[in-house]
UniProtKB/TrEMBL annotation:
Protein purpose: ATPase that binds to both the 70S ribosome and the 50S ribosomal subunit in a nucleotide-independent manner.
Annotated Gene Ontology cellular component terms: cytoplasm
Residue ranges occupied by any OBG-type G domain in the UniProt entry: 1-257
Keywords: ATP-binding, Coiled coil, Magnesium, Metal-binding, Nucleotide-binding
Full protein name: Ribosome-binding ATPase YchF
Coiled-coil parts of chain: 128-155
Listed InterPro entries: ATPase_YchF/OLA1, Beta-grasp_dom_sf, G_OBG, GTP-bd, P-loop_NTPase, TGS-like, TGS-like_dom_sf, YchF_C
Gene name tied to this protein: ychF
Length: 364
C-alpha cells in the first residue's frame, strides 16, 4: 500500500516524512519495496504479532508495511507547470490514498506561502490543482468518446453522460470522491484514474502545546468542517513531536507518550487511519519460522488472500485452515483450538476476516 503526502510548502510535510523514515529504520528487511529518497517505509503496528510470537517463538516476526511517498512540488499553479508539475502528477497517480497535511499551528518564524494560517484556503488551493489535473485528463477522454459516439454503440452514450456529470462536479470545485456512483458507473469512473477519486486523509498539523487542548485550536475546527463536507476524515498530528518520538528507543517511547498524555504516536494513528480509509484488513500466518501479517482488501476471498503469499498458493488453492485470532488466544494453543472445533476448514468462497490466523493447503 502506498500513501502520498501532499500539502502546501511549510506546513510540516518534510518534518512528518523525516519522522516516517526514521521510524522505518529497519526497512532493509523489505527488499521487495522500491526505496527511493522520497519513499519511507513503516511497519503497520499490530500487537497480535507479538502475542503470536510468544506462542510460536518464531525465528522472525514480519509486520506488513506501508510506503509513504513525499510528493513535493504541489503548489499553486502546479497543474499548469511543466517538469516539476508533471512529475508530481505522475507520483500522485501511483498512490492508493493521499495524506494531505494542513498547517494548523501558528509560528511567527515560519512563513506561510499565503501570509496567514487558513486551512480552508490551503485545502482548496491544493484540491483545485488536483481538480485541474483531473479535468484536463477528463476532457481528453471526452473528446475521444465523442468520436466513438458515431459508432452508435449505446455504451459510449452512457460513458459520455457520466463523464459530463463528473466534469460538471469538478468544475464546481469539488473532488470526484464526493460524488456517489452505482456499481456500473463506479467501474467506468475507475478507468479514468482520477486523482480526486482517491481517498484522502487530512492531517491537521498542530503545535506541541495544542496537542493536549485540541478544542482550543480554531484551525482544526475549520479543517474538520471542510473535510466533513466531502466525507473525508481528519486526524491530528504534531509533526515536530513525531520527529522526536521517531528518534527514541521503544522503551523510551512509551514513557515519552505517557508524559505527553498520549496513548499512541501520531504516526501509528496515521497508519491505522489509512488502513481504515482504504478498507484494508490483515490476516496472519504463524509458525516456528515466521509470524507474519498480510494486508488484503476487506472482502478478499481465501484463494486471492493466499495469492498474496505466492501465486502458486492461489493457483493450487485447496482450502484454508483458519482460527480467529481471539479464539486462538483464548485457547492458548493451536491444538486446543483444534480440539474445541475452532479451527475451521474454509473453501474457495470464504471471505477472509481481519485477524484470521491462517494455514493454506494447496497443490503445487
Ligand atoms: P514542508 O515545506 O511542508 O515540508 O514543511 P517543513 O516540514 O519543512 O516545516 C516547515 C517549518 O515548520 C520547519 O521549520 C518545521 O520545523 C516547522 N514545523 C513543522 N511541523 C511543526 C510543528 O508541528 N510545530 C511547530 N512549531 N513547527 C513545525
Amino acid at each position: 500500500m502506498k500513501l502520498g503526502i501532499v500539502g502546501l510548502p511549510n506546513v510540516g510535510k518534510s518534518t512528518l516524512f523525516n519522522a516516517i523514515t526514521k521510524a522505518g529504520a529497519e526497512s532493509a528487511n523489505y527488499p521487495f519495496c522500491t526505496i527511493e529518497p522520497n519513499v519511507g517505509i513503516v511497519a503497520v503496528p499490530d500487537e497480535r504479532l507479538d502475542k503470536l510470537a510468544e506462542m510460536y517463538n518464531p525465528e522472525k516476526i514480519t509486520p506488513t508495511v506501508i510506503e509513504f511517498v513525499d510528493i513535493a512540488g504541489l503548489v499553486k499553479g502546479a497543474s499548469k507547470g511543466e517538469g516539476l508539475g508533471n512529475k508530481f502528477l505522475s507520483h500522485i497517480r501511483e498512490v492508493d490514498a493521499i495524506v494531505h497535511v494542513v498547517r494548523c499551528f501558528e509560528d511567527g518564524n515560519i512563513v506561510h506561502v499565503d501570509g496567514s494560517i487558513g486551512p480552508k484556503r490551503d485545502v482548496e488551493t491544493i484540491n483545485l490543482e488536483l481538480i485541474f489535473a483531473d479535468l484536463e485528463m477528463l476532457e481528453r477522454r471526452i473528446d475521444r468518446t465523442r468520436k466513438n459516439l458515431k459508432s452508435g454503440d449505446k455504451k459510449f452514450q452512457i460513458e459520455m453522460e457520466l463523464y459530463e456529470s463528473v466534469k460538471a462536479h469538478l468544475e464546481s470545485g469539488k473532488p470526484a470522491r464526493s460524488m456517489t456512483f452505482d456499481s456500473e458507473q463506479q467501474q467506468i469512473v475507475d478507468q479514468l484514474f482520477l486523482i480526486t477519486l482517491k481517498p484522502v486523509l487530512y492531517a491537521g498539523n498542530v503545535s506541541e502545546n495544542d496537542l493536549s487542548s485540541l478544542e482550543a485550536n480554531k484551525f482544526l475546527a475549520e479543517l474538520k468542517e471542510i473535510a466533513a463536507d466531502e466525507g473525508s476524515e481528519v486526524m491530528v498530528i504534531c509533526a515536530k513531536v513525531e520527529e522526536e518520538i521517531a528518534q527514541l528507543a521503544d522503551e523510551e517511547k512509551a514513557d515519552f507518550l505517557e508524559a505527553m498524555g498520549l496513548d499512541e504516536s501520531g504516526l501509528d494513528k496515521l497508519i491505522k487511519a489509512s488502513y481504515k480509509i482504504l478498507g484494508l484488513i490483515s490476516y496472519l500466518t504463524a509458525g516456528p519460522q515466521e509470524v507474519r501479517a498480510w494486508t488484503i482488501i476487506k472482502g478478499t476471498k481465501a484463494p486471492q488472500a493466499a495469492g498474496k503469499i505466492h501465486s502458486d498458493f492461489e493457483r493450487g488453492f485447496i482450502r484454508a485452515e483458519i482460527v480467529a485470532y481471539n479464539d486462538l488466544m483464548a485457547c492458548g494453543t493451536y491444538n486446543t483450538a483444534k480440539e474445541k472445533g475452532l479451527v475451521r476448514s474454509e473453501g474457495k468462497e470464504y471471505v477472509m476476516q481481519d485477524g484470521d490466523v491462517t494455514l493454506f493447503r494447496f497443490n503445487v
